[in-house]
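User: I've been trying to design a sequence by hand for this structure and keep getting stuck. Would you show me what you'd pick, starting by listing the structure so we're on the same page?

Assistant: Good idea, let's start from the same input. This is the structure you sent:
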């Protein structure tokens, strides 16, 4: 009997405290729709909304209805009814402006006019003397975006008494790029296997596909590239295309188009032709036929993303032709169907004097040579998604070409799945950078949203961090970077703090004693990683190939520019890559005021110093510390700040879901080990050149350099 009581007691306790079985597990992302816990707010919300009325029956409007049912009832209680008549106050009226008879009675014309084909208006008003909240737009998808935004405002405890929201995306293509392989692995993926189950498609539609579409639509993402840029050509066979079509059907109501990575040699690799030469008539016909086949299955197929002549991928240079010749070949095949090509600027050979200069050298002369349905997809920095890079000099330098920014959301070079890093500050840093292309204020954001050069085909792509892990991103904070990417693609002017605040409220709690500390952690988290991995403009000093952990000693790759030593150039005189006129002169790729400021040791910001300069170990920085001492302090600061994050997180025990809290506690413990490992390994290694002692306050390494050099991780995730 006692045992039974004990068992019942345990069950009750688990139900109250949130046991493993009841834990949130992060699956619902920003669409948790938990019951509003602030009672005053709950009363206000219930006064404003007693019912909802959705006009329209398209799949998109049905998705809006579904979301309102789910969201309102779950946040406010079952009493919220669905109605088709406006017979009382407190009705949420949702519909497309122009077709909705009710909404046309509100004077919304000037507002709706502003929001284009994807934006929305949310307004408190009154129709026939009855108070309403209206959600509307010019299109069904605009309305759906408005519904999501409204529900998310409620999740964030926002006041909805006097609403006047007018919102529209500043960027046209807002894309997630999956580096998912057809065998289910994910290149640089740290959250398990791919979410696409190619084997069971097209018949088996996992609920996760729908939840993926919901979560993305909620933040305005409108395109997904399903497969890896290192593209398996078989994705273009009929066998796979019908599976792609099934996913496209799931995503369509949510405004998400599918795109595929095409292998440039597909005509050869699929066994049909002997060449992939863009000038060959048969090759042109092959792509025309392929486009026809694709559009017969997926009428709104978005287009292709292509990695060509890079890291072993085939491309037009194999035939002595330009990258534009290659891009235009595919673009012309897609043109009749309004498809587009995203052509990556990540093109390099392995033995250049300075790899950071290559993309500019290859693409700048091609400005104006790309067809109008091509976008050049440029990584945020000139190299490869390092914790900190200057912005790519191609931004601002190609006014006659459509450009799409490529950010990496998955954290290949930022601690991978185990680290807690909120990437909005990194994204913001690039977007805020002033290219000076047309004088002061020519920010990368303005290049990307088309304002600077008047482009209308604009885009922002994020390399996805999503996998089949229950919480999608392996580390719940990974969700925040996915969220931030979507929000910034919608509005590149949002601040990191605004985005963090929204996400924390929808993920953990609306209480200030949770929001404030987590906010502090998140906003500092990217700088922490920079400090303990790559301070002062260091870069590319990662473990060989898996990019996990420190590897500043790597010098054994047959590709010179895959060696860390190529980048840091440490020697007895100093450290850093001279990219001024005495070195590779990469600075000259920037517009004059930027180039001048980077070229001078005096004005180059410390955070980019070693990217652009080879600096003596005893050089005095702006902090008045010598370079060596500052490097030591920065590595130590990185470790200290991870420990600060641990303290902050520990103080939140009991204030957020226990399982989520505990998961993050363990991950921070791993991150602390990794930060110490980075500090020790890098400082011991660089000390062999500086020959200087560690200043006071620097933790003592617990192993020798030899030990750190001997570590290897044969099955590190993401390396396939
Ligand atoms: C998909 C880096 C990564 C590769 C990636 C490549 C790219 O080199 O390490 O895994 O390949 O970038 O962006 O194409």
């Amino acid at each position: 009997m006692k045992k039974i009581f004990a068992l019942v007691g345990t069950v009750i306790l688990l139900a109250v405290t949130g046991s493993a079985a009841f834990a949130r597990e992060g699956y619902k992302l920003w669409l948790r729709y938990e019951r509003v816990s602030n009672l005053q707010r709950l009363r206000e919300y219930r006064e404003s909304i007693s019912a909802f009325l959705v006009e329209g029956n398209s799949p998109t409007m049905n998705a809006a209805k579904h979301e309102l049912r789910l969201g309102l009832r779950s946040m406010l209680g079952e009493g919220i009814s669905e109605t088709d008549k406006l017979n009382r106050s407190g009705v949420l009226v949702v519909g497309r402006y122009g077709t909705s008879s009710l909404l046309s009675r509100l004077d919304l014309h000037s507002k709706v006019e502003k929001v284009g084909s994807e934006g929305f208006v949310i307004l408190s008003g009154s129709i026939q003397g009855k108070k309403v909240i209206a959600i509307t737009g010019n299109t069904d998808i605009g309305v759906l975006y408005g519904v999501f935004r409204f529900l998310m405002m409620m999740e964030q405890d926002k006041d909805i008494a006097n609403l006047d929201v007018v919102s529209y995306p500043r960027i046209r293509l807002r894309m997630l790029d999956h580096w998912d392989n057809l065998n289910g692995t994910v290149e640089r993926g740290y959250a398990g296997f791919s979410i696409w189950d190619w084997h069971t498609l097209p018949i088996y539609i996992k609920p996760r596909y729908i939840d993926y579409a919901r979560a993305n639509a909620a933040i305005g993402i409108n395109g997904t590239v399903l497969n890896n840029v290192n593209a398996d050509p078989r994705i273009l066979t009929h066998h796979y295309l019908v599976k792609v079509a099934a996913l496209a059907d799931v995503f369509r109501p949510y405004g998400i188009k599918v795109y595929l990575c095409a292998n440039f040699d597909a005509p050869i690799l699929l066994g049909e032709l002997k060449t992939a030469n863009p000038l060959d008539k048969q090759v042109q016909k092959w792509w025309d036929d392929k486009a026809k086949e694709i559009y017969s299955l997926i009428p709104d197929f978005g287009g292709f993303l292509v990695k060509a002549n890079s890291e072993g991928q085939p491309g037009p240079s194999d035939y002595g032709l330009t990258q534009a010749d290659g891009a235009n070949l595919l673009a012309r095949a897609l043109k009749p169907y309004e498809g587009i090509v995203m052509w990556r600027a990540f093109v390099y050979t392995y033995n250049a004097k300075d790899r950071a200069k290559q993309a500019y050298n290859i693409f700048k002369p091609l400005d104006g040579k790309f067809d109008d349905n091509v976008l050049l997809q440029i990584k945020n920095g000139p190299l490869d998604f390092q914790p900190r890079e200057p912005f790519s000099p191609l931004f601002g330098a190609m006014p006659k070409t459509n450009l799409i920014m490529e950010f990496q959301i998955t954290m290949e070079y930022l601690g991978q799945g185990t680290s807690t890093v909120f990437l909005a500050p990194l994204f913001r840093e690039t977007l805020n950078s002033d290219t000076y292309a047309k004088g002061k204020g020519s920010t990368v954001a303005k290049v990307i949203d088309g304002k600077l050069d008047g482009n209308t085909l604009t885009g922002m792509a994020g390399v996805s961090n999503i996998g089949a892990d229950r919480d999608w991103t392996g580390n719940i904070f990974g969700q925040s970077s996915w969220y931030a990417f979507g929000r910034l693609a919608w509005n590149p002017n949002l601040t990191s703090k605004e985005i963090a605040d929204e996400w924390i409220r929808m993920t953990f709690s609306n209480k200030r004693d949770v929001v404030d500390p987590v906010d502090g952690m998140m906003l500092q988290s990217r700088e922490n990683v920079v400090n303990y991995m790559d301070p002062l403009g260091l870069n590319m000093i990662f473990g060989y190939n898996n990019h996990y952990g420190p590897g500043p000693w790597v010098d054994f790759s047959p590709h010179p520019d895959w060696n860390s030593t190529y980048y840091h150039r440490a020697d007895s005189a100093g450290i850093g890559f001279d990219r001024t006129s005495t070195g590779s002169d990469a600075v000259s790729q920037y517009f004059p005021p930027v180039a001048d400021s980077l070229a001078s040791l005096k004005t180059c910001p410390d955070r980019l110093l070693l990217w652009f300069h080879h600096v003596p170990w005893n050089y005095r920085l702006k902090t008045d510390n010598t370079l060596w001492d500052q490097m030591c302090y920065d590595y130590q600061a990185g470790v200290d700040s991870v420990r600060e994050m641990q303290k902050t997180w520990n103080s939140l025990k009991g204030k957020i879901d226990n399982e989520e809290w505990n998961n993050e506690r363990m991950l921070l413990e791993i991150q602390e080990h990794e930060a110490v490992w980075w500090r020790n390994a890098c400082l011991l290694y660089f000390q062999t050149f500086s020959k200087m002692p560690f200043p006071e306050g620097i933790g003592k390494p617990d192993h020798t350099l030899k030990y750190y050099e001997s570590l290897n991780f044969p099955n590190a995730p993401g390396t396939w």
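That's my pick for every position. To get oriented when you compare it with your attempt: Residues 31-167 form a domain with the Chitobiase; domain 2 fold (CATH 3.30.379.10). The mean pLDDT is 95.
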